[in-house]
Structures are given as structure tokens and as C-alpha cells.
Amino acid sequence: METKAKNKIYLLLIYAIFPIIASIVYWFAEPDSSLGDYEITHRIGSVFGVFAFVWFCFNVIIMTKIKVIETNFGLDWLLKFHTWMAALALILGSLHYPLVRYGLEFEITQMRTGNFGWASLVIVMILAIIFMSNSLAKYNAIGKLRTSTYNIRFKYGVNKILHNVTIVGLSLIFYHTIISLTSVSSLYMLGLYSFFFGIAFIVWFYHKLIRRFLSTSDPYMYRKSSWDDINKDEISNKDRKWALKLLRKTPSLYPCLQCGTCTSECPVSKVTMGSYNPRRNVLAALSGYKDLLLNRDDLAIWGCTDCHTCDEVCPHDIELTSLFGSLKNQSVALGKGPDYIGEQARVIFDIAKAIPSQPAIERRREELGLPAVSEPDISEVQTLLTNLGFKDKFN
After folding, report:
1. Alpha-carbon gap, residue 384 to 251, rounded angstroms
2. Engineered SS bond to 304: which of 57, 134, 324, 369, CB 3.0-4.6 Å?
3. pLDDT at site 375
4. At 12, phi and psi to the nearest 5?
5. Would you give the end-to-end CA distance of the chain in angstroms?
6. Residues spanned by CATH 1.10.1060.10 within the chain?
7. pLDDT at 219
8. Is the pTM of this model over 0.90?
9. What's the CA gap between 380 and 385, in Å, rounded?
10. Rounded CA gap, 385 and 379, in Å?
């Protein structure tokens, strides 16, 4: 079995075993009560609550991107796993409330901390679906909402708020657990709740504060490197209206994590040692650096070969090739495209092919058992390109 497959199994086992252990401890630590017919319902609801709390703590650890997790798991798999486990924890937390309350009354503080903690995590989940994933990007309302938040400079602020609200919600639920009757009467349960929350809080604190100071000595820890820097270039001021137009056309751009998966897997980026950098282009586009992308004739945007590798590996399903194609079209419209683009376009206009037919190509196809390439209708292609205004753009 492959190492990555084993690691996924280990992670699933951790997610399953720890809440099971905590639930067993709870089952025996729960003080004897005279709940009668309500006791089994109360205990099942409490077990649901234990599972939800432990999984919330684990999800906070996952989203802080600690090195051991990033090394062993792909970001796309982790994002899906993180989302589904958060949803499952919310469902169990939602079932916990009516089951434990059935036939019982609790102290007002315990009720409010649990309700507010649960509500804050529900809000985080809804906002994450809207702003941090592309599952709803196809809907116009989501696209308009994203452009409006971008317009008020709220893009990365949204992500920060979501992560901070998560720890706030978890803290409320932690307080809700330690003032519960079970924790008050059992040091074992109090210790378990404190252990899971403590680990989650320490990892979150490290990610939010300490990790930032290490970014200068190890840039990749903070997802940046020297060749990603767009501030060192001689560029004009940011054109936010232009960036908004790009975002309206490609709303999937909004939740870009700047994870670098597109750059690390791009064939051209590998060959050019980062001179062509899709991640940098996305950052420049979202930042509104129009001149940086369009006023050049080097690899800035023209390194893209439309192979769609970045689309396939992007963990957020961002339509990167569509963005790069749009940037190329704008560059050509401004007369800024490299000369070879115009030369290749004229070849297509003249012979209806990007690469002329050659005897060597035909022999090779015959050796491979491939059919001969049929000759295109040149007049038909020329008519089509003429109607599209081809001559006006390239003369």
C-alpha cells in the first residue's frame, strides 16, 4: 500500500479512535441520575456532543496547515476532508442539543455558551462555503457577492475573520463542556476536554503568531518565496476596476489560497525555473496590477500553453486557464502581445493550421497507425477569422 494511502488511513483512525475513547470515559464518568426514560436519550445526545467537540478541535488543527499534515496529504484532499468533517460535527452538535435537553432544564450559562458556540460555527460554515470554496461559484448571486466584498477591500479580511471566529466558537463550546455536570463531577472528562482544546489552541496560536516570524528565514512556511514578490517590479498603481472586471468574469478566482499548487505542477514553470509563475499571475490579477501582466512580451502571461494542468490540480477548482486566456486577449487588443503570436496567427490565417504539414509528420503518423490528417478548408477558416475582425487586430 502506498505511503499516502496509509497516512490517510492513520488520519481516519485518529479521527475515529479519540472521540470513541472520550465517549467511553464519558459513559462511565456520567454521574448516576434519576432521569428514568430520559437517561438513554441524554447519554446518546452527550456522546454526539463529545464527537462534535473532538472533531471541531481536530479541524482547527488541520486548517492551521502544520508541516506534518502538509507533507503527507494533498491540499485538495484535505480541503474536502476538512469540509465534510466540519459538516458532520455540526450535524452531531445540532442533534446533541435537543437530545440532552429532552425532559431536562440546564443552567442558563451552559445553555448560552453552547448555543452561541454552535451558532458561530454554523455561520463560519456558511461563510466558508460562500467565500472560501467554489462549490457555489456558478451562481450569479455568489459572484456578485464576491465582487462587492472585493470592492470594499474585504477579501483576505474575510478569511482571517472566519479563522478567528472558529476559535472563538470553539472556546465557547469548551467553556460549555467544562461547566457541565459531567466535567464538574469527573476530573477525567475535565482533563479530556482540556487536552483536546489545549492542543487545538496551541496549534492555532502557533499558526497565527509564531509562524509569521519564521517566514523570513523559511519563506515557504508562509507560502511565499522571493520570485512570488510582485512589489519589486516597476509597475503602475493598482487598477481595481480592471481587477473587478476579471473577478466578475471569473468569480472562481476569489477563494485563491495562494497555495502554489498551480505553479508547482505547471510544466512551463518547471522548465523555466519559476520565470513563468501562475500563482504570481493570479495574485497580480487580484491585486489589480494590470501593467505588470499586460504590458510585457515575455513569459509573464504568454508562458501558458493552455494545457489545463493548473485547472486539474487546483484544490479550489479555480478556472485559471480561462483567466490566462482572458489576459492574453487583452494584451493582444492593446497591441502588447509578443511578435511570434501575431506571426503564428497569420500562419493559421494563410494555411488554416498552426503547424504546416510535413512529410516527416505524415511518415510518423503512418508508422504509428494513425490516419492521415485531412486538409482543412482554408477559405472557410479565412472567412471565419475575417468575420471575427482578425485583420483589424493583427494589421
Report:
1. 30
2. 324
3. 82
4. -65, -40
5. 59
6. 226-337
7. 38
8. no
9. 9
10. 10
Q: What is the Cα–Cα distance from 209 to 7, expressed in whole angstroms?
A: 28
Residues 305 and 354: beta-carbon distance below 8 Å: no
User: Cα(21)–Cα(264) distance, rounded to whole angstroms?
Assistant: 40
Closest by CA to 326, choosing from 242, 264, 260, is: 242
- 493550421: which residue's cell? 353
Least confidently predicted of 86-90, 146-150, 380-384: 146-150
**Spatial contact of 66 and 103, defined as CB atoms under 8 Å apart:** no
> Measured at the alpha carbon of residue 168, what is the angle toward residues 165 and 172, in degrees to the nearest 5?
140
What integer pLDDT is reported at residue 103 of this predicted model?
A: 67
Assign domain 226-337 to its CATH architecture: Orthogonal Bundle (1.10)
- What is the spatial distance between Cα 329 and Cα 341, in angstroms, rounded to a whole number? 11
Backbone angles phi, psi at 66, to 5 degrees: -65, 155
Residue 174's identity, in one-letter code, is: F
Taking only Cα atoms into account, the Rg of the chain, rounded to an integer number of angstroms, comes to 28
Which position has the grid cell 490540480? 313
Cell of 25: 470515559
Residues of the chain with CATH 1.20.120.1770: 3-222
Instruction: Round to whole Å and give the CA distance between 238 and 379.
Output: 44
Cell of 338: 509578443
Torsion of CA 271, 275, 279, 280, to 10 degrees: 180
pLDDT at 32: 61
Instruction: Give yes or no for a contact between 291 and 261, defined as CB atoms under 8 angstroms apart.
Output: no
Work out the average pLDDT over 337-357: 81
Nearest residue to 90 via CA among 102, 79, 82, 80: 82
Residue 203 near residue 166 (C-beta atoms within 8 A): no
Q: If we measure between CA atoms, which residue out of 340, 350, 330 comes closest to residue 393?
A: 330
Fold adopted by 3-222: Four Helix Bundle (Hemerythrin (Met), subunit A) (1.20.120)
